[in-house]
Amino acid sequence: MTTLTAADAARAAITASGVEIRTLEEVADLEAVRRLYEQIWRTGAANPPITADLLRAMAKVGSYVSGAYDDGELVGACFGFFSAPERDALHSHIAGVLPRVRVRKVGYALKLHQRAWALERGAGAITWTYDPLIRRNAWFNLGKLAADVAEYLPDFYGPMDDDINRADPTDRILIRWPLLAPAVDAACAGTPRALDGAALRTHGAAVALEASAADGPIVRPVGRASYARTVLVGVPDDIEALREHDPALAGAWRGALREVLGGLLEDGGRVTGFDRNGWYIVERTTA
Prior knowledge:
alpha+beta; seven-stranded mixed sheet
């Protein structure tokens, strides 16, 4: 187990990313966060993901609002609020960085900053949601951060009018990040939770969902009578490009993943990680 404290791990990640991260309270800074989110999600001023006045209220009552600055320019931001029971966990509602700084791991630095901040205030976990079809987000959450899947949430937010979600139903995975778990501690020290889907397949894992030669979803039955305890659930290379160029195919993937991954979790399965080549690894309690 690493000896790095959460604060040390956050400082190391921030230094490596080359940005400055600080918590925000002033209206001008919070207005900049609003504009940044509009730019990332491409919503426009008429439908912002969050407003500066709401962020101001959250910051005032002790919620988390932070910004990442590159030579004085806001390039990333994250905010969250405490959930019941009182202050036991922080719910991280929106985090985003500009695409041009993703390679510098600014998002990783923001999450480690948030972790250290939450631990200083007595929280033991952070929760958030993400789109399970976006491969890079699945790897970031389950691999880079070693967070755990808590629940599959069909069409959780309802229709969202932005260029990222488009007309797709807003199915989400609810993540729980136990801040002092050994796997999380290791991930925050630079050792992600990495699983090898190909190796698992060689040792008998069943494939429940994979891509066809035409990039469409192929659902393969792995019912309770199947011999396989470990199940692999695939996602497409780039669901955002599919939504733009072939919305019908993107919709087919949404339905297939809801049926397969949502069904496995409802049946008692547990996601143990994500292979960055595009596989959710699910362990079933009955096989």
